[in-house]
Amino acid sequence: GQHINQVIYTSATPSAYEYEHSQQVVEQLVRPTGLLEPTVEVKPTKGQIDDLLDQIKRRVDNGERCLVTTLTKRMAEELADYLIEMGVKTHYLHSEINTLERVEILRDLRLGVYDVVVGINLLREGLDLPEVSLVAILDADKEGFLRSEGALIQTMGRASRHIDGHIIMYADTITNSM
Fold first, then answer.
1. Domain for residue 49, yes or no?
2. What are the C-alpha distances in Å from 171 to residues 42, 63, 96, 117, 138?
3. Is 76 among the domain residues?
4. Tell me: the pLDDT tens digits for 142-169?
């Protein structure tokens, strides 16, 4: 059998495996969109929901959309209910929703049927949502799969197609992943 000496891995979000099997890692940060990186801000968790509501209203007034990611199902449900009570057109994207329905919800977000989508895992599809100008990550400093470096980078990337893309991570400490 033949043996391959050299392999080049390419990935937008390399995992630990790629790093462990590489003597050399070359990073190239290029936005195919030609847009600048979205700005990133870390804010304290105290008063985070009030702050988030202000941030969302500001975006909605400009005709922009928002994605919010929470750590638990319960928090996602409660937040979505609260935003709806506050008059924000919000949809909760949970894991039981099938792929077709997810596609419809995200299309409705783009069309302005909803201004905000709240979910736990917003990584599953290559969500290309140019209308999204704000990605808010609650409990960004908690450890776990969806708060790992790769997951945070991908979640944050959801704001990268908008010229005024902005990310807010609500956290009281800064983790290595962040």
1. yes
2. 6, 27, 28, 20, 7
3. yes
4. 877 777 887 787 777 777 788 888 999 9
- State residue 102 phi and psi, 5-degree precision: -60, -45
The tokens describing 33, both together, are 């969109």
Report if residue 18 sits inside a domain: no
In this prediction the pTM is: 0.76
Q: Classify residue 25: in a domain, yes or no.
A: no
Beta-carbon-side half-sphere exposure of residue 104 (alpha carbons within 13 Å): 5
When divided into structural domains, the chain yields a total of: 1
Sheet of 132-137, strand order:
39-43, 166-170, 132-137, 65-69, 116-119, 90-93
pLDDT digits (tens, 9 = 90+) for 8-44: 777 777 777 777 777 777 766 665 656 677 888 999 9
Residues 117 and 109: beta-carbon distance below 8 Å: yes
Residue identified by tokens 């992943």 is 177
Q: Which domain holds residue 83?
A: 32-170
CA distance linking residue 98 with residue 61, whole number of Å? 31
Q: What is the pLDDT of residue 3?
A: 78
CATH no. for residue 63? 3.40.50.300
Question: Is the pLDDT reported for residue 53 higher than 90?
Answer: yes
